[in-house]
């Protein structure tokens, strides 16, 4: 018989997600904390968002918090430069 350790994230008595590592479970729990903070912040804005859209936007922002933080700091992500096509040399006879 195998023993499997699972870490379950529970919010308000509801099981949200199950993980096999504590690190992943803690990261997800922290992300949910950020969502819980963002929902009232977004709801208080002048933008007319219904509850579902507000929650989806909060999840998106929380999942992309590192990139969002950089954008708010003014750090612009540069696209990787595409390699220039090599010029063909033409032999003239």
UniProtKB/TrEMBL annotation:
Source organism of the structure: Shewanella aestuarii
InterPro entries, sorted: Uncharacterised_YebG (IPR009813), YebG-like_sf (IPR038627)
Official protein name in the record: YebG family protein
Entry superkingdom: Bacteria
Higher taxonomy: Bacteria, Pseudomonadati, Pseudomonadota, Gammaproteobacteria, Alteromonadales
